[in-house]
Each structure stands twice: as C-alpha cells, then as structure tokens.
Design goal:
Order of helices and strands of chain B: EEHEEHHHHHHHHHH
Structural class of chain A: alpha+beta
Number of domains of chain A: 2
Strand content of chain B: under 5%
CATH class of one domain in chain B: Mainly Alpha
Strand order of the largest sheet of chain B: 1-2
Oligomer: heterodimer
Shape of chain B: elongated
Largest interface: A-B, 27 and 29 residues
Largest sheet of chain B: 2 strands, antiparallel
Number of strands of chain A: 14
Number of strands of chain B: 4
Structural class of chain B: mainly alpha
Radius of gyration of chain B: 38 Å
Shape of chain A: elongated
Helix content of chain A: 40-55%
CATH topology of one domain in chain B: Cytochrome Bc1 Complex, Chain D, domain 2
Helix content of chain B: 40-55%
Number of helices of chain B: 11
Distance between the termini of chain B: 113 Å
Number of helices of chain A: 16
C-alpha cells in the first residue's frame, strides 16, 4: 500500500508538487545488541536508577514515635510529604515548585553541555524500554532472530516465546506500578497486605492503571513516545548551540562511504564501510550518518557499534563520536578547538540553579515549626453582649510541625481590655492549648472588649509554646459594627 | 458500473487514494475508511452496551424497567451509602447515647461529634427563625450572646429545646406579659412614664415622669422583671437593664411592647427530633459563646414585695450621664 502510494505520488508530482504524508505508520524497530563504553554506562545507569526506584520505599528513617519512619513517603491522607530529614506540609508546596524549577533548569544546563543525555540514559521511558528490549532479546534472540520470529507464521514455538515475553513484561510493569504505590503508603505494611490478600481497591486500581501504562509505553509505544509525545524532546533542541556535545558522524572522514574488502587501499574513499551497524543498534531507528536528527536521544550506542567495527578493520575509533559542531569544523580546517563548557548560556543556567537552590535551602532551614492561622467568624461577624461588650469569634489553626505533642499559650495585642475565652472540650484555656505532634489544632476562641464601635481594628494574636522556644503571630480584625 | 465484479482497483490521481467504484455523474467516491482505532472503540462500545443491557436496568417496561442481572438501582445505592453513614455514626452514637453533658464536655471526640451533628441539625431545623449563624432576628433571640431568657446552662438549653416555649406541650415553658395598653390596664401617660423609666435603666436620660415610672414599674412589672429590672429566668422575663433588646430598644418599640405585650413561641422539638439530636443541639448552642457553666453566678433578682426608695436613687445615679 505504501509503495503504491509512493509510486503514485511520484507520478502525480507534476500536478501536486507538495506531497505531504499525514500519517507515519510505526515501523517496528529491532535494536541489535552492542557492547562498548556507552552501553556499559547505560547498564550502570539503569541499575542505579531502577535500584533507587524499586528500593527507596523500603529505606527507614527514624523520626521519633509520632511520625512515620519511611524515608521517602507522600502521605496523602494526612497531607504530608517526607523526604529523609525534610518534611513538607501543604502550606509549603512552594518547595515543590522550587524542585520543579531546579529540575527544568538542570535539564537545560545538562542539555546545553552534553546534548540530550537525559533522554539517552536516565529518562524512565528510555530505561524501561531498554529493560523490556533486554527481556525481548533474552527470550527471542537478537535483532535478526526477533525480526524473523515476528514475520513468521504462528507456530507453537512462536506462541510460547511471545507469551513468555509478554508475561515477563507484565510482571515488570506490575512490579513497577506496585513500587510507585509504595511511595504513598507504608511500604512494609502494604507489601504484607498483598500476602494477606487484603489490598484496598484504590491501591489495586492504581496498580492496574500503572501496570497497563508501563506495559503499553515500554512494550509498544517505545520510541514513539520520544518522537511524538514528549514535549521536552522537542524543546531541548532550543538549548543546543555550536558548543554542545552531540552525537556526530564525521562526514569529512567517512565519505565517500562504500563497501570495503580486506586489504583494499583506503586512498580516495571514506572510512565508512556502510556496514549499517550504527543503524541496526539504534533504538530510535534512525541513521546518524544523515546528521543530527530530532529523534536522536544521544544514547551513544551507534558510537559503540561503529568503534567496534573500526577496531576490526584497524582504523582509528571515533568515526561516530560525541563532539561539538565547532570542534568538528575546526578539525576540518586542520586546527583544534577546545570544548567550551563556560559559555553565557551555561553561566546563566548555573546562576538560576544557584539562586533557586539557595532560596530553597533558606526556606528549608528557616522552616517554622509553629505556625498560627486565624479565621474570623463570618456568621455572625460580631456579637453584642448584655454588658455592652462586643465579642468576636475566631478559629485558631495551630500548626504544630514538630514531632512532639505540645501545649501553647496565646495572648492578644491591640485591645487593652480584651477578654479571651476558649471553647473546647475538657480543660483548654488560653494558656493551655494542646496540639498533638505533626498536626493542626483547631480552637474556637472568643475575644470580648468594650471597644467603641467603629472601623474594624487590627488585633494580633501571639502564640508560643510553654517553653517559649517556638513563637508566631497572626494579625486579624476585630469587628465592632455592621458597615 | 455495468459489471461490479470486473471492476479493478482504481486509484484517484490527485489524492492517490483508491476509489470505491461508485460513480455519480462523473463524481467518484474515494475509499477513505474510518481509522482503525475509531472502529475498535466503536466495537468495544457495542460489546459494552450488550453487557450493560444485561447487567443493568435498561429497557423501559410498564411500571418501571427491566431489572438487570445485578439488581442495581440508584435507590439501593442510596440506601447502602446511608447505611454506611449510619454505621459510621453508630460508633459515636453508642457512646453518645448514654453520656451525660459532663461526659460530653470533657471528651474531645464526643464534643466534636456533638458540634458536628448539632451544627447540621441547627441548619435544618432552627436556622429558619434563628438564622444560619444563630444570630437571630427581631423577635428571635440571638443565641450567640450571653443574654438568656430561660437560662444558658446546658440543662436549661436542653429543656427549652425539648419542650419549647409557649408550645403545644404540657411541659412547655410558658409565661405571659399583660397587654397594658390594649387591655386598658394602664393609661397612656402611665405607659409613657414606665417606658421612659425602663429606657433609663439602660442609660437613657431620665424624664420628668421618672417618679411615676418607678411607681408603675414596681407595681406592675417588678413581679416578673425584678425590682431592678434585671429580669427573671423562671418566667422568661428579660433583663431590661442590659444592652440587648429582643424586639428593639428604641422608644417606639418599647412602647409597643408594653402596649401590646410580646409572646414569642418556639415548638417543642422533643416531639420532632430524637433525644440524641437535641443533646447535640444543646452542646452546639452552648459553645456558640453564651453558654453558662454550672458555677456561673447569675445576676438576677428575686421577687420583692416592697419598694425601697434608696435602691431607686442609687440605681438612677449609676446611670446618670
């Protein structure tokens, strides 16, 4: 069909000079196995990143008796996030903003120096796809065997191999989904609940959904995600300049390419022997010899493949290599150009990183362990008492971010004759407001005063714990009439 | 098309797409099938609808609809969620039922339960007259303040809610103020004098008729409102010396009150709500700010028989401007 279309389009090219293909069918890619420096780095990075991902929920971190002991935990029920010694409340979600800014600028910074190495080595899409391809290869064999199996008619052997592959994929996907859920629950408890067949439907739904998406993305969508779905892939090229390290084919040295027989002279021809090793190993299915392409994720597997071939035919390595445009052009002219890591672009990326990092550090170091919020009653705004006093009601929200149960006392500035009354169960009064560890205490407080009716006046609630170590205040209004 | 079977695939030159072989007046139809994914979604929906047809009520028949194999109805679902909520409340209710007010006020959980339940019961039943914030309105007391006609301890509030005021109930709280003007118990100038006297109790200027006012008040009003006008909770008689007026504290309104009298009423909620809800309402109202504790000293007077002139002068001095 596509061939037919092609011939048609050439035939009609005179009438229709712009022949646009609107839909590109996914061509199945069978990346060939390769061994070399970058492959080694990729395996290592995969082991580290997957190790971090799968094992982190099981790391314990002692926070005392009143807080969870999971090192990394997002506790949605209690609206807290824990990361080792850092704890974030919903009020501090700006720290998350800071992390996102750091991640984005960090990506820009690395990209402007080394190209899309994030994509090639650490992106989860790449890592899990790599893992799935590895499973595929172990069971179905290398590139040619896989291709043959895929195109062959259905036999018992094929069914067996394909089923096994998908079963293992699903198992990995399930494990991945389960690990994700562990970040939101106490890991050992949840794992135990699996063995006891007592998992909540919410957890199962999430695991089901994530299993499916992992299976789909790493098993089937693969490079399509990078090419068509991922926005970062597209705008990372905006961080490139002539001093960015990119996977480069040395055209000067490689062309004219052509087949080469052992013993033939290299005079008058390029070093590329057109073996297509670089194409066969490419997980994106592109030919790097066509120059830098949008699809290239800078994984360096073609560099490994080409270097292995160069070793075999006794030519120097580096026909395909990580290089900068400037450096390559200088070499053509016979000169040598040093890599320029310090450039205006990298400097201001670094400045932003340092700035945001310091701001976050400041925020974390100065994180208040006690915070007071005051909500003025709205219905009614004020109450006339029989004595002539006017009373306003407030709800005091006391945020105890420490891991101890504490008692607080409050005082008031702005009204000299203010009478403070606390309504709560038991013995609570203004000198004894109990708030459990790591939680918010809520108290209804009434303030009465003989203040003359007039415009709302500002009053300030001061709070401190019994030892006086933690303090905070909040300025609210005292309403005396209907305006 | 003379012979369909002989038709060979024809490709349109401009678009490079096959035709279907259909032709009308030289116009040929291109074969652009629906996208595969669209078809799949469609087929899945068809299969799903068959499943739905069997499992859920779907086909209207006289008197309802086919039942569906799952037996699902929204009524059932509602009942289930209601039962769930009732079961959730049962945990607290069990303890709440037998708890005294003392227990509730000292138990954080029960206290919170009472306020949550009381707050919603208040909005359902009481807010119509007393307002959503319990701030009241003319004739409907503000329940946030410290001025109580019939008492502000938990027990008093509980009794008021349970039996109502001037309600159709044997145990209801009841008292009646005479209509001094309408029933011609007092003359117009006597009413004027007593109104001015009452106003002077809460800081208004004394008028020339002050002495007449004092006399009338002691004769006619003091038996319920007290010698000093500080009210009496046994009769639901309001304190006339404070800053709070149920119907308004301006002269015209006070005059109207004395002339026609006032008698607000509240239903006996014990006949409509269960005991737990009334207990919850009691605790809720008590914590709105005016609730009195058991030890509170209430500044009200006893009925007195004799007029003591010193008291009057002392009192009027207090309020002299």
């Amino acid at each position: 069909m596509s061939n037919q279309k092609q011939t048609q389009s050439t035939q009609t090219s005179t009438q229709n000079s712009q022949d646009i293909q609107y839909f590109a069918k996914q061509e199945k890619i069978y990346p060939k196995r390769v061994w070399g420096r970058y492959r080694k780095i990729k395996w290592l990075v995969m082991a580290i990143t997957l190790g971090i991902y799968y094992l982190t929920p099981f790391i314990r971190w002692d926070r005392g008796p009143n807080a969870p002991d999971q090192a990394v935990l997002i506790d949605l029920n209690n609206a807290k996030a824990y990361w080792f010694w850092i704890e974030i409340w919903p009020q501090e979600v700006y720290i998350l903003t800071g992390i996102l800014i750091l991640a984005a600028i960090g990506l820009f910074f690395v990209t402007s120096l080394f190209g899309r190495v994030w994509c090639g080595y650490t992106c989860p899409q790449t890592v899990w796809t790599d893992l799935f391809v590895w499973v595929e290869r172990i069971i179905q064999g290398d590139r040619n065997a896989r291709k043959k199996l895929h195109e062959s008619p259905w036999t018992f052997d094929k069914i067996k191999k394909i089923t096994l592959t998908h079963a293992i994929w699903l198992f990995i996907a399930w494990w991945t989904a389960g690990s994700f859920v562990l970040y939101f629950n106490d890991a050992p408890t949840l794992v135990r609940s699996f063995f006891e067949w007592d998992v909540s439907p919410v957890v199962l739904t999430f695991i089901g959904g994530l299993t499916f998406s992992t299976y789909l993305m790493a098993g089937f969508a693969r490079e399509q995600v990078c090419t068509f779905m991922c926005p970062y892939a597209r705008f990372q090229s905006a961080m490139f300049d002539r001093d960015t390290l990119i996977i480069s084919y040395d055209e000067q040295r490689g062309e004219q390419r052509g087949k080469h027989k052992k013993g033939e002279s290299w005079e008058g021809r390029g070093h590329c022997i057109d073996c297509t090793a670089c194409v066969q190993v490419c997980p994106m299915g592109i030919d790097i010899r066509n120059g830098l392409q949008m699809e290239c994720i800078a994984c360096g597997l073609c560099v490994d493949a080409c270097n292995n071939i160069m070793d075999k035919i006794d030519l120097p390595r580096g026909l395909i290599r990580y290089d900068t445009t400037n450096h390559m052009e200088a070499e053509v002219k016979g000169g040598d150009e040093k890599f320029k890591f310090i450039r205006p672009r990298t400097i201001y990326y670094l400045c932003v990183i340092v700035l945001v990092g310091c701001t976050m550090l400041y925020a974390l170091i100065n994180r208040a362990p006690l915070q007071l919020n005051v909500l003025h009653d709205r219905n009614p705004l004020f109450v006339q008492l029989s004595s002539g006093e006017i009373r306003n009601g407030y709800i005091l929200k006391i945020l105890n971010k420490t891991h101890d149960h504490l008692e607080y006392k409050i005082s008031l500035d702005g009204l000299d004759d203010a009478r403070i009354e606390v309504k709560a169960a038991g013995e609570a009064d203004k000198n004894k407001l109990h708030v459990p560890a790591d939680s918010v205490g809520s108290y209804h407080v009434y303030v009465s005063s003989f203040a003359e009716p007039g415009k709302p006046r500002e009053i300030t609630f001061n709070i401190q714990d019994q030892s006086g170590k933690y303090k905070d205040s909040y300025t609210s209004k005292f309403v005396t009439r209907n305006d | 098309m003379t012979d369909e079977k002989k038709h060979k695939k024809e490709v349109d030159k401009v678009t490079g797409v096959e035709t279907t072989g259909h032709e009308w007046d030289g116009l040929k139809e291109l074969n652009n099938p629906l996208p595969r994914w669209w078809l799949w979604v469609f087929f899945i929906c068809v299969i799903w609808s068959c499943w739905y047809f069997v499992v859920y009520p779907s086909w209207p028949v006289p008197g309802g609809a086919t039942e569906g194999s799952s037996g699902y109805t929204q009524f059932k679902e509602l009942r289930e969620s209601q039962n769930e909520i009732i079961a959730r409340q049962a945990r607290y209710l069990e303890r709440f039922e037998g708890a005294s007010f003392d227990d509730i006020m000292n138990d954080e959980e029960l206290y919170a339960f009472a306020i949550a339940g009381g707050s919603s019961a208040f909005k359902d039943n009481c807010a119509t007259c007393h307002g959503t914030g319990a701030a009241g309105a003319k004739g409907y007391p503000n329940l946030n303040d410290d001025d109580w006609l019939w008492g502000g301890k938990l027990e008093n509030i509980h009794q008021t809610i349970n039996y109502g005021i001037r309600a159709d109930n044997l145990d209801t709280r009841v008292s009646q103020m005479p209509s001094f003007g309408k029933d011609e118990l007092l003359k117009r100038e006597e009413i004027d004098a007593v109104v001015d006297y009452v106003l002077s109790l809460s800081g208004h200027k004394k008028k020339d008729s002050y002495d007449l006012g004092v006399k009338i008040f002691q004769e006619q009003c003091a038996s319920c409102h007290g010698e000093k006008g500080k009210g009496m909770r046994e009769f639901g008689a309001p304190n006339l010396t404070d800053k709070i007026w149920l119907y308004g504290g301006d002269r015209a309104t006070v005059f109207k009150t004395v002339y026609y009298a006032r008698a607000g009423m509240m239903p006996a909620w014990g006949e409509r709500l269960d005991e737990n809800t009334i207990k919850q309402l009691t605790v809720y109202l008590h914590q709105l700010g005016g609730g009195e504790s058991d030890e509170a000293v209430i500044d009200e007077e006893k009925v007195i028989e004799h007029v003591e002139p010193e008291t009057d002068t002392e009192y009027s001095n207090e309020h002299a401007e």
